Amino acid sequence: MRWIRLVILGAVQGLTEFIPVSSSGHLVLFQRLLGLEYEGITLEVAVHMGTLVAVLAVYGRDILKIGGTLLRSSWGILRGKMRFKDAIREPRFYLGASLLVGTAITAAIALPLSDVIQGMFGNLRLVAVAWLVTGGLLYGTRGYKPLGRLPTVGSTILIGIFQALATVPGISRSGATIAAGLYSGLSREEAARYSFLLSVFAIVGASILDLPEALPRVTEIGFLADILVATAAAGISGYFALRFIIQKVMRGEMHRFALYVWSLATVVLVWLNFNL
After folding, report:
1. What digits encode the pLDDT tens for the residues 29-68?
2. What is the 3-state secondary structure (H, E, C) of 2-55?
3. How far is the C-alpha of 164 from the C-alpha of 114, rounded, in Å?
4. Minimal CA–CA distance to 198: which of 164, 171, 221, 222?
5. Cα separation, 66 vs 69, whole angstroms
6. Computed from CA positions of residues 230, 243, 146, 141, in that sequence, does the dihedral angle turn out positive or negative?
7. Residues facing 186 on adjacent strands
8. What DSSP designation does 241 have?
9. Cα gap 54→51, rounded to integer Å
């Protein structure tokens, strides 16, 4: 039963990390309904690492090329052999720099509010309201015709802000960032790619912050096996969820998930009112 519980937890994280219905919101709901709780920060880091593996499996080649260009060009700038204005004209360097700036904007907004946001995770009513907001963001993409642009300074700022908004449980990170990309004129393909490449920085950054607290439990007898089970479940489900949502974005069908989150929010709010 313990491992079944861990598989469910990992699978929920993997599926809802990329499908725009909010992984954090669903985990709060599962905690309330089934008693499925993160067993400390170590397991939380582990399931997020599983979703990171899923992104690497789909976008690994892009990540290697962007990372290599960033390192090579940055080293050239530091040594005085390349000017920044020349480096920024290179598409991969520009995209990498844009992802870093977007992550910095998210961190600048979210980190000072981390204690407030953490306190929201026990409030299922707030999660339901946030699902309503997520539905609005998703439905706003209905019939939207993107301009086919690449990321600009404006789109980078907007996506970074929307990603910070998604630290509230119930606001979907993928939904918010893809919607922001579409609203700012990115092509469907680029909006999806940018969102999921940005998730690498978000997952790694959050895991690094939690790592000092997470590491001590790794050496406990039996706990490593638990971590591997949950991570594998998150990685496998996340991979298929990522492939699925990319297809939906390309077909312009993001708005279809609005009906799900609106319905779920309504059911939860009614249930809470009858269980006061």
Report:
1. 876 776 655 555 556 677 778 889 999 999 999 999 999 9
2. HHHHHHHHHHHHHHHHHCCCCHHHHHHHHHHHHCCCCCCHHHHHHHHHHHHHHH
3. 11
4. 164
5. 5
6. negative
7. 149
8. H
9. 5
